[in-house]
Amino acid sequence: MAQEEVTQSHVSFRDVKGKYTGLFAWIFSTDHKRVGLLYLYSIITFFLTGVVLGIFMKLELMAPGRTVMDAATYNAIFTLHGVIMIFLVVVPGLPAIFGNFMLPIMIGAKDVAFPKLNLLSWWVYALGAIVALSSLFMAGGPPDTGWTFYAPYSFKTNTNMLPAVIGAFILGFSSILTGINFIVTIHRMRAPGMTWFKMPLFPWTLYGTAWIQILATPIVGITLLMIVGERILNIGFFDPALGGDPILYQHLFWIYSHPAVYIMILPAMGAISEIIPTFANKTIFGYKAIVISTLAIAFVGYFVWGHHMFTAGMSGTALYVFSLLTFLVAIPSAIKVFNWVSTLHKASIQLEPPFFWAASFLFVFMVGGLSGLALGALATNVHLHDTAFVVAHFHYIVFGGVGFAFMGAIHYWFPKMWGRMYNTRVATVGWMAFFTGFCFLYTPMFLLGIQGMPRRYYDYVDRFHGLNVVSTVGSWVLFIGLAIIIINLVRGARKGPIAPKDPWGGKTLEWTIDSPPTLENFEEIPVITKGPYDYS
Amino acid sequence: MDTSVTIEHVHRDDEGSKLGMWLFIFTELLLFAGLFIVYGVYRYLNPEAFHLAAQQLSVTVGTINTVILLISSATIAMASSAIRLKNKALTLILLATTIIMAVIFMVNKYFEWSAKLEHGFFPSSDILHKLGNGDTLFFGLYFFMTGLHALHIVVGMVLISIVIIRVNKNSLTHENPVLLDNSGLYWHLVDIIWIFLFPLLYLIT
After folding, report:
1. Which stretches make up the Heme-copper oxidase subunit III family profile domain (chain B) (predicted)?
2. Which residues of chain B have a CB within 8 Å of the CB of A184?
3. From the CA of A46, how many Å to the nearest CA of chain B?
4. Taking the model in full, what pTM does it have?
5. A11/B1 CB distance under 8 A
6. What is the pLDDT along chain B (205 residues), one digit of tens a residue?
7. Residue of B9, B27, B133 with shortest CB distance to A176
8. Distances, alpha carbon B64 to alpha carbons A451, B144, B153, in Å
9. Could you tell me if B37 and A252 are in contact, meaning their C-beta atoms sit under 8 angstroms apart?
10. Are A475 and A441 in contact, with CB atoms under 8 Å apart?
């Protein structure tokens, strides 16, 4: 009898037979773990598309003049790279994949608050992606405005803007639905005894992220709708010829799009805050400081959008205020870095792939963050605005920060999600190649930017040639690293050795349940009496 | 080994549903907030033209529509109470009244819009371009804002229709009135946005 009970309740969520089989068992499942994996597979697909586009861009920039494509194609490719990577990959990335999969487990719940809404958000995401990418296959070709859709060019160009803009609008809905779901889940479904300050840090960052998602996304939604109105009805909101103001578009766009980078980076910080204590075998240093800095970033992040427009034409007062606020938002980020480093101080560290990703995250995140301060300062900004320096800074934060945290998270939670282990040695080799390639790819762009190479340019003068070659070669090394990582993970998921419940010695709730989890995660909802990182 | 059930537990949390609805309403308010900012900026830049253009709108029709929406908000709130009193017939009457009010609102809107179109006051019309940038922007905003609001009315009507069907089938009763309450909240949102649109477009002349 006891034996039977064990078999019955320990069926992995992957093997549960529902109403449907095959693909339908996934795309119609409201299980938060399946929705998380659905997001994972779709996001990885788009990520690889974006990577290939990026590789082509770098290839084109390897030499001055025409290398592999014409200028119009180059414009379309960097726009698509941006649209895909921002709206389809990085914004949904960590919250939709690891948030969906891990949030309910980490707070001791059986599912999110609104499982159907959760599935709907994936469907909306898929619809938005299809609409956005349909521009590729229509006469007129994909948009060429850059991912920011700046007015007035975005309603003057003859390329297919509407699908891209409407697609981004629909994707915003998906983001909002996920945000609402997570806030309600965290408010209502924490396990008994899990007070706010006993909640692990990844759910905390998801909470901050969710608030930004619901408070900032509607603004870009209406702004994109206005672009649709401009193109269809020629209303004149942003058309100077009709009395409109293109700068107003930039304000409205960045009111969302700056907080959006915190939608990207906060969950990444949360994942790092989970990985570091586990591999340091130590309680995280300054738990409350990390929580409060998370909320501070979410809050101050709303008021810094103007730093994208220092050279666009604003009053002197506005410039100073935005610059000051930009410096302010760096403080909570630095607090987090100090806390992570302090956690590692005098710890007995387990050197495993997730830790390598977390440690390199600290490095690239600091380079990205400090170069951000160079851009936030008014005087240097005038020199660096719209140069390759901005591209390097942005990629160090978004690809370096978020990307490395994503890689760390997937290597960290892999045994829980698939119930198998990957080859850690191959994973380490992949990380080395990726990290090396990354540094060679983006560091030259800092130098190029300081020397004056503009961003988004198809052609350049000869003196930029050497560094561009280094950068392009870096992109190949990074790509090789990425290929090793993906092949290793796919092999691990299919044939790897069966993983135990807690392969790394983690203390949060997800390590107390089966790998992979059962349908309802917990047989009995746990009662929480201690803080999340209890290594005593 | 029985693995035939996908979701075993039935999770129900009315407080949570309402919290979710309120959060959604915040996002809707922010959606319109973007338009209010744009309106504010262009009104500030073109005070004279906005003043004159607003006089083209009929305050009477606007007032009638405001009263209609306020009444409909009251009826749906009463429906929330009626279902708790287990009075199915009254609930259905009140919900139907709400829908009828919404239809009257849309009919008024239709006549108002077609009058504007007839006079050539529509985005990118030659008449507006001749009048100047301020008028172009005012009527652009007028159509955009009232259009988006009308879209919300339609969504609200669909939502209330679903509630009517479910009340009629007895699948929504005094035991689980949260869908009716949330539809009511949504309808109040549609109402309150109009309460802002009405003075901005019709009254400040």
Report:
1. 1-205
2. 16, 19-20, 23
3. 27
4. 0.93
5. yes
6. 334 444 445 567 889 999 999 999 999 999 999 999 999 999 999 999 999 989 889 999 999 999 999 999 999 999 999 999 999 999 999 999 999 999 999 999 999 999 988 888 887 788 887 888 888 899 999 999 999 999 999 999 999 999 999 999 999 999 999 999 999 999 999 999 999 999 999 998 7
7. B27
8. 65, 21, 16
9. yes
10. yes
Handedness of CA A243, A245, A248, A253 (dihedral sign): positive
B18: which chain A residues are within 8 Å (Cβ-Cβ)?
none
Largest CA distance in chain B: 77
Are B123 and A184 a contacting pair at CB < 8 A?
A: no
Residue in chain B lying closest to A31 (CA): B7
Among B20, B136, B141, select the one facing A242 at the smallest CB separation.
Answer: B136
Does B7 sit within 8 Å of A214, measured CB to CB?
A: no
Q: Which residues of A touch B11 (CB under 8 A)?
A: 110-111, 113, 115
- Report chain A residues whose CB lies below 8 A from the CB of B27: 176, 180, 214-215, 217-218
Three-state SS letters, chain B: CCCCCCCCCCCCCHHHHHHHHHHHHHHHHHHHHHHHHHHHHHHHHCHHHHHHHHCCCCHHHHHHHHHHHHHHHHHHHHHHHHHHCCCHHHHHHHHHHHHHHHHHHHHHHHHHHHHHHHCCCCCCCHHHHHHCHHHHHHHHHHHHHHHHHHHHHHHHHHHHHHHHHHHHCCCCCCCCCHHHHHHHHHHHHHHHHHHHHHHHHHHCC
DSSP character at residue A108: T
Interface test with chain A among B4, B11, B50, B143, by most A beta carbons within 10 Å: B11
Q: How far apart are CA A207 and CA A103, in angstroms?
A: 10
| Of A38, A15, A13, A16, the residue nearest A27 (C-alpha) | A38
Contact yes or no for B45 and A243 at CB 8 A: yes
| A181, closest residue in chain B (CA to CA) | B20
Q: Which residue has the tokens 């983001």?
A: A175
Tokens coding A52: 């290939």
CB contact under 8 Å between A29 and B6, yes or no, is: yes
Contact flag B7-A217 (C-beta cutoff 8 Å): no
Q: Do A11 and B28 touch (CB under 8 A)?
A: no
Max alpha carbon distance in chain A (Å)? 80
Secondary structure letter of residue A22 according to DSSP: T
Domain chopping of chain B, boundaries = 43-203
Question: Would the CB atoms of A187 and B19 count as touching at under 8 Å?
Answer: yes
> Per the CATH hierarchy, to which homologous superfamily does domain B43-203 belong?
Cytochrome c oxidase, subunit III, four-helix bundle (1.20.120.80)
Pick from A525, A522, A532: which is nearest to A32 by CA? Answer: A522
Residue A187, burial from CB neighbour count under 10 angstroms (0-12, 13-18, 19+): middle
Contact A237 B15 (CB under 8 A): no
Contact: B1, A18; criterion CB under 8 Å: no
Closest Cα partner for A355 from A365, A344, A346, A369? A344
Picking from A332, A114, A107, the residue whose alpha carbon sits closest to that of residue A201 is A107
Pick the residue of A9, A188, A239 with the most B CBs within 10 A to test the interface with B by mutation. Answer: A188
Angle at A135 between CA A399 and CA A138, to 5 degrees: 150
Read off the pLDDT of residues A431-474 as tens digits, 9 standing for 90 and up: 999 999 999 999 999 999 999 999 999 999 999 999 999 999 99
Cα dihedral angle (A492, A493, A497, A498), rounded to 10 degrees?
150
Instruction: Please state the length of chain A.
Output: 536
CB-based contact B31 A222, cutoff 8 Å: yes
Task: Please measure the distance between the N-terminal and C-terminal CA atoms of chain A and give it in whole angstroms.
Answer: 37
Task: Determine the 3-state secondary structure of A504 from DSSP.
Answer: coil
Determine the Cα–Cα distance for residues A518 and A425; give it in Å rounded to an integer: 29
